[in-house]
Structure formats: C-alpha cells, structure tokens
C-alpha cells in the first residue's frame, strides 16, 4: 500500500471502464491465476495512456513474463513498427511464444538473460520498459543507454517495492536489502543524469518515468 486509502482509490479507478480486447484479457486472467507477475491494473491503464500519447515506433521491453504487457503496449500503440521483448525463464518463454503467435503484432521475442542480450542488441528504441530482475535495474540502464533514440522515454516498474523503498535499509530483511540498494541506485542515476528528466509515479507498485534527450556533442 503506497498511501492510506490506496485500495479505495484503486477501487474507485476500477469503477471507470478500461476495456482490454478479450484475447488480451484472457492472457491476463490466466497469468493471474498462474501467479505470473504482470503489471497491475492502474499500470495497465497508464501504459496504454503512454502508448496513445507517445506512439513509439520501436519499443524495448526487459521482462516479458508471458507477453501480457508487451501485447498491451502493442495493442494501444498506433505507430508501432517493432517491439523487442526479453525473457529468460523457460516455462514463461514457451507460453509467451504461444501468446505472441495468436496476435498479429510486430513482436521480436528474445529468449535469454537480459543483460547478455542487451550487450549485443542493435538498433535504437524510443520507448523502453524495464520490468525484469529488480537488482539489475542500474545495469539495465547502463546497457540501454547506447540503444536509446535521440528522444526516448524509459519506464521502470516496481520502484516503490510496496513501500519498502521509503524505509531505511536497516529496517529491512537482509534479503530485501540488495534490491533496495540497487533500486535506490537506479533512482539516483536517472535523477542525476542531465540527459533525463525523471519522476516516480505512485502507479501500481511505483513507476519511474524518464524522458530522455540526447545531448548535442
Ligand atoms: C514482473 S515479470 C514481467 C511482467 C511483464 N512485463 C508483464 O507485465 O506482463 C518479470 C519477468 O522478468 C523475467 N526475468 C527476471 N530476470 C531476468 C533476466 N535476467 N533476464 C531475462 N528475464 C528476466 C522473469 O522471469 C519474469 O518473467
């Protein structure tokens, strides 16, 4: 819970219709019943909003799971030419492949460790969604740097860690401390690098949004 009454706010928001196409809704429903982590309801709405606002041509997603967020972005992006998405967990790779086959979306699905793949990836992306290993966010940012178009947006999910990011690290269980440290490092990077204007929105589990402009020279 991010702030008091957050659950009431979510119910309130859900009372306004945000309709997914039925096939996409079925993927979400199955993911939830299989306990596959997918972007939360208000994040879905916000990502769809961003797609309509920006209409990126080339999207890079780190963390496919079973393809739900990738297909959601593809569905709401009117100018999409290619969406590249990366996943390394075999059971989800199989399911994502099957899901992508059912949709007529320009998805390039890359199976393997995200850091290894990013190291060797070519091309320029005008929208990046980071949603894989939380402890790797600073590394993903470093690897994504050379892949950014002159003008781009980076979004990163689960920044608030259900509120834990606000706590001093001493108050956390040992196993949560590395993620805490790395997400704080990611925030520090996007907030201090002058190529970005960034903020964190209390959407879902916290979404960091960074607008990027390549500096001349
Ligand atoms: C939160 S889920 C992604 C959810 C998806 N974006 C959605 O909303 O539909 C994170 C995914 O990242 C994958 N992942 C974690 N570490 C990874 C890595 N090093 N390389 C590639 N994928 C990774 C996990 O297996 C998991 O399926």
Automatic annotation (TrEMBL):
PROSITE patterns: SAM_OMT_I. Transmembrane segments: none annotated. It catalyses: 5-hydroxyuridine(34) in tRNA + S-adenosyl-L-methionine = 5-methoxyuridine(34) in tRNA + S-adenosyl-L-homocysteine + H(+). Mg(2+) binds at residues 131, 157-158. S-adenosyl-L-methionine binds at residues 39, 69, 87, 113-114, 131. It is an enzyme of class 2 (transferase). Its EC number is 2.1.1.-. Pfam families: Methyltransf_3. One of its GO terms (biological process) is tRNA methylation. Gene3D superfamilies: Vaccinia Virus protein VP39 (3.40.50.150). GO terms for molecular function: magnesium ion binding; O-methyltransferase activity; S-adenosylmethionine-dependent methyltransferase activity; tRNA (uridine) methyltransferase activity. Keywords: Magnesium, Metal-binding, Methyltransferase, S-adenosyl-L-methionine, Transferase, tRNA processing. Homodimer. Belongs to the class I-like SAM-binding methyltransferase superfamily. Cation-dependent O-methyltransferase family. Catalyzes the methylation of 5-hydroxyuridine (ho5U) to form 5-methoxyuridine (mo5U) at position 34 in tRNAs. This is tRNA 5-hydroxyuridine methyltransferase. It comes from Candidatus Weimeria bifida.
